[in-house]
Amino acid sequence: MDEKIKGKRIMVVDDESDLTLFFSMSLEYHGFEVEAFNDPKKALSNFKPDYYDLIILDIKMPDMDGFELYEKIRKIDSKAKVCFLTASELYYKEFREKEYNAIDKDLFIRKPIANEELIKEIDRLIENKI
After folding, report:
1. Contact predicate 91/60, CB 8 Å
2. Less Cβ crowding at N or C end of the chain, within 10 Å?
3. Residue 85's pLDDT band (boundaries 50, 70, 90)?
């Protein structure tokens, strides 16, 4: 277990329970503490400011997409480090070209992703000053 990872806290929000399970198991195996939610509204109501080292949000979710959740989280904690999951190139491009073009393209993780690559990406995102 990498000592710089141990105890880092991550929130994962994805409406697909199999993906939140995968992320939770993979991240916890590598020493992260994980809180996973399948409902963005529940994630928001359980959000703790200044608590998470990284928040991973799926872009395409029912009721509230990842960008909407991102805006609500940033109102509560303007320093929160957030990255986005996407499997849909079209959805990604549509939102990046419209309202969210200021979000760094390096803050997007493509699904599916291998376990080792996931850990590398998360480590990179946590270490970078987002």
Report:
1. yes
2. N
3. confident
